[in-house]
Write a structure and sequence with these properties.
With 392 residues, this protein is α/β, with parallel strands linked by helices. Helices cover 44% and strands 11% of the residues.
Length: 392
């Protein structure tokens, strides 16, 4: 697909909406309850106007950084998103390859339609696996060992899903994974013939990391989903997170942090990084925008751990603002899925290129030749009460 007329992430979003059935797009786009937090994640960036420094040599803007012990080309990583076959038949391998081409981390969801082994075989970039502490701790131990065996370099524990959020769009649409071919759904699917043909001929929507649950037929895919849903454990505590950090004994990320006290606890149990996230507004509606949580969490942890943030990032200026507030890196979820739905791997690569170009342009215009020049001074009226800047 020609992406030349997609000039920003919103353009890719529009292309994705035209290619996906309504209930699938709503599953991608929707949040919990009134979706206030989903919307606030993006709007909150408008509360941080930028300042600039002029007459700075920005002939060669350098976005290179390090995260979780690995050099990366820019401080943006790809977040874990489950069931990617819903959006394009090439699924997680397409996203992983795009992340590798962009020189950054890819986080694979435990709830993926491609096994962690197959993703490892298709991409040579830095990879982490996102996991939960399931009721069956043996299942968790097995996932950890499988990660080690195929060279995953980091583990990411999601901690904000003791139960599922109330996603009313999905309930109203009768959305399920795999999608049900009811009369109403068939009519909607028929309006998106390219998606429907691929869904019928090239997708099975299996939870690929749980292939041992049943024999792989449609009924067994339902069994696997039921099994995983029963595995979510609302009694998980910091003691379980600490157990998993010791079990992995490598770069360890705790994802779903909003409170400074929780960030301190994560650092205390051995986390390498805390990941500020409200699950894209898909869990508890009414919580703070993630960008607003950065300063308090950075102050709480100091330099003991790295800080990653996701939620509402649609522009390179959003990345720059997050870094200025104290984040080490940003993570992209929906923007990559817009690209995937629009044009497979090429669409994801286009999404990452758009944001990378925007970030470099924003740094140049703000007077930041490299990431070391980025700081609170960039945010007009913050810290000192007036625009300022680093010494040059």
């Amino acid at each position: 697909m020609n992406l030349n007329n997609c000039f920003n992430i919103d353009d890719l979003r529009g292309r994705a909406q035209k290619r996906l059935p309504r209930q699938v797009f709503d599953f991608l786009e929707g949040g919990a309850d009134d979706e206030w937090s989903t919307q606030r994640n993006r709007r909150a960036f408008d509360d941080y106007p930028l300042s600039t420094r002029t007459l700075v040599d920005v002939a060669g803007v350098d976005t290179r950084s390090r995260l979780l012990g690995r050099a990366i080309e820019w401080p943006v990583i790809v977040a874990p998103t489950g069931a990617s076959q819903l959006f394009h038949h090439t699924a997680e391998p397409a996203v992983a390859r795009a992340a590798a081409a962009a020189g950054t981390w890819y986080a694979l969801s435990t709830m993926s339609n491609t096994s962690l082994e197959d993703v490892a075989a298709t991409s040579d970039g830095p990879r982490m696996l996102q996991v939960y502490v399931f009721r069956d701790r043996g299942r968790v131990e097995s996932l950890v060992e499988r990660c080690r065996a195929v060279g995953y370099e980091a583990l990411c524990l999601t901690v904000d899903t003791p139960i599922s959020g109330n996603r009313e769009r999905d309930r109203a649409n009768g959305m399920s994974i795999p999608p049900r071919w009811t009369l109403r759904n068939v009519l909607r699917f028929a309006a998106r013939p390219a998606w429907s043909v691929n869904a019928l001929l090239r997708c099975d929507y299996a939870l690929a990391n749980f292939k041992d649950i049943g024999a792989g037929g449609p009924a067994d895919r339902g069994l696997a989903m039921d099994y995983v849903n029963r595995q979510f454990d609302p009694s998980v505590t910091w003691a379980d997170a600490e157990w998993l950090a010791r079990l992995w004994d490598g770069p360890f990320v705790v994802k779903g942090i909003l409170a400074p006290d929780d960030a301190r606890r994560a650092a205390a149990i051995g986390a390498t990084a805390v990941w500020i996230s409200n699950h894209g507004g898909r869990q508890l509606d009414g919580v703070a925008a993630t960008v607003d949580c950065i300063p308090g969490i950075r102050q709480a942890v100091g330099d003991r751990v790295e800080v990653v943030v996701d939620g509402g990032i649609r522009r390179g200026t959003h990345v720059l603002k997050a870094l200025a507030l104290g984040a080490d890196a940003c993570a992209l979820g929906r923007p990559c899925l817009y690209g995937l739905a629009a044009a497979g791997q090429g669409g994801v690569e286009h999404a990452l290129k758009l944001l990378g170009d925007e970030l470099r342009r924003a740094m140049a215009l703000a007077g930041c030749p490299d990431l070391g020049a980025v700081g609170p001074w960039l945010l007009h009226g913050r810290e000192t009460g007036q625009a300022g800047g680093p010494a040059h």
